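Dissemination and training. As part of the outreach component of the grant, students in the summer workshop were shown how a complex can be specified as a set of sequence lines and then modelled as a single object. The example used during the hands-on session is reproduced here so that future cohorts can follow it. Participants entered these lines:
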Amino acid sequence: MIEGIQLEFFLVLGTLVFFIGIYGFLTRKNLITMLMSAELILNAVNINFVAFNKYLYPENLEGQFFALFIIAIAATEVAVAVSIIISLYRKIKSIDVEKVNELKY
Amino acid sequence: MENFGYIVIVPFILLISFILIGLAGGRFKPSLSGIAGTFSVFVTTVISYITAFSYFSGAGLVNGVYQKIIPYNTEWLRFTDKLVINMGILLDPISVMMLVVISTVSLMVHIYSLGYMKGDSGYSRYFSFLSLFTFSMIGLVISTNIFETYIFWELVGVSSYLLIGHYYQKPSAVAASKKAFVVTRFADLGFLIGILILSNITGTFDYSILTDPNGPAIAQGSTIAFMGLSVMTWALILVFMGCAGKSAMFPLHIWLPDAMEGPTPVSALIHAATMVVAGVYLVARLFPLYALSAPAALHFIGYVGAFTSLFAAIIACTQTDIKRVLAFSTISQIGLMMLALGVSDYGGEKGLGYMSSMFHLFNHAMFKALLFLCAGSVIHAVHSNEMNGMGGLRKFMPVTHITFLVACLAIAGIPPFSGFFSKDEILVAAFEKDFVLFIVSMIIAGLTAFYMFRLYFSIFWNKNNEYKDSPHESPSSMAVPLMFLAFASLITGFIPFSKLVTADGAGFETHIHWGIAVPAVVIALAGILTAMALYKKESGLPQRITASLGSLYRLIYKKFYIDEIYLFITKKIIFNGISAPVAWFDRKVVDNTMNGIAAVTNFISVKIKSFQSGQLQQYAYVMVSGMIIIILFALYLWNK
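and obtained this result:
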């Protein structure tokens, strides 16, 4: 609970970050930038978890644990994604998502 | 009463020999397989002789009647409380007699094959199938119930198929084996239906109940009639259909002449001495049933036998392939055995036909096997089946010549050779019962003598052919069986069969009926003399006679076009009338339904496959828009 700041503020912040992430994921062609957008989406979720936990159920800690889990998983996800991107780069000399369309019918 | 427990060795040693030679035969020297097979049959022969000796010398005799002895009988399949199928061994006069016949001929054929098949690429395979055949044939004759018989009946059919097709690289051999199998299988369909009806009426498969003259099966008979005959009669006629298929009775005889594509010793064993008489054996096995509850069926058998016999004897006079002459002669002689059964009654001296049929079966097995083995020896020397390419062979092959002559005299019914005695009994039995059949069998006797001596003179006398490599006498492994069988053909006529093998087990006295025997011998001699006049020296006379007969000769030479009729029925009527519409329905309707379903699926997937563009962000767009739609929809529902 932070004085003078209501729960809704956090929720608005979370929503903004989430949709910025979605927008970036849908519009950016660079795979690294798309990965960063995905991180923004995860962080928006984290903000929501922590805010709800703090404001609605301050006696419990599940929300914060979830946030910690998500941070850890995001870190591993980045490691995997970056390695995929590197090997992709070695293969097609590009990290443009529109050129990565091998997996189709 | 002795137990005869040791008889169980017989089928097992043959089965083991089949499996061992079949599995391991290829790894050792081929001659080892031959010796192993011959050894197992030798053991079988010794045991069979011991069994026959002790059975007929009194062990099977109670109050002057030979009993049915069942050393083993175990339950094999239990369908319901009433319907049980057993596996067991049954010894009675005819099965003991058949044990002797099968093991003797099989042993001779094994020894003969050691020489005849030397150097053949399928040597081990050949001997393993011979063991299989001997095993199944012995299983057939010692079965305790009709279902066990049926199992072994099919097994002999399979081994016959395998052995006819021994030279499987030859298309004609493949076709012949297929024909034999299909024709006999078709007949066995009737046999199976007959078994089912029979067991339905009587409630048992067991021979000892079925054929007990005072037993429930015969006493009960059948009161239900179908198309003028009792159901029992129909059942027995259907069983006889199976017998007709195996024993090559008209009109199911067409497979036997073609079966001569197999190796000659196989023809001697399977298609002359043992398997083809299985039909006669089965009718004899069920004889009390035939004689006491379905005399109409027995009459039918007699007439089928007579017709087949005459028919085959006429064809045999025109054939030029020596094995085919012998094949038709076999059909004719088996027809004679069927005729003898057909004119027989049950019990005492009225069972003369039955006894003479078994007697003739026994003698025929010996001299016909001998004829085939001689023919094999001739073919081995000349490398041809065609009679026209032979002649004057008596100088080159003295042993074959003499043994062949003995066999010819035996089959022609000249005393003191074995055929004379059994044929005389058959003629007497026919004379007492049915004058038409008696006349027919007299004619057959004359024709038999004629065509056998036509064969004999054409092979061993006639012109002196120039042979490329001069023919020579066969090796001793082939000559010894010939001599043994010739010896058997000389003496088996003196076996007092009427005391040993009769319909009801009780022996009776028979004498040679000179009033019938003399005319029969005269007719046979007339046949021989005609053949001698025509074929002993090379002359144009046979050709002139053939020419004057013209189209009649052609009709007979082409075997009355029975094969062509069958081909017409199967190819033109069944294939075009039934198979072709069924095939059309299968191709057009059944297949097209399935293909149509597949084509529709394929069409749809081709149309929608471009959704999968491989563009990651496109997928993400769709996913996000879907999510948004679902959320909006959920909100709408929630607010309502």
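The interface with chain B takes residues 22, 25-27, 97-98, 100-105 of chain A (CB under 8 Å). Students were then asked to discuss how this feature might be tested experimentally.
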